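Each record in this resource describes a single protein on a pair of labelled lines. With that in mind, the following record should read easily:

===
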Amino acid sequence: MITTAEIILYVKYVLCILITIGIFMAPAWVARQNGKGKPDMHAVRLGSWVFGWSIVGWLWSLFWAVRK
């Protein structure tokens, strides 16, 4: 039998995973909202995927997504 504590634990982990994915994909979403062209959009997405594990790579992708 699944208890209420176990359900809350599962919900907590699912929310944590969704928030982490959302933060990880934020530079690509920002680039799309700023109307970047396809080459810039692909570069931001690739930089976020390859270097997103480091704070520096994620910030670089975010900077590239918002620059005009």
Remarks:
- The longest helix spans residues 4-24.
- The mean pLDDT is 85.
- The CA atoms of residues 40 and 60 lie 13 Å apart.
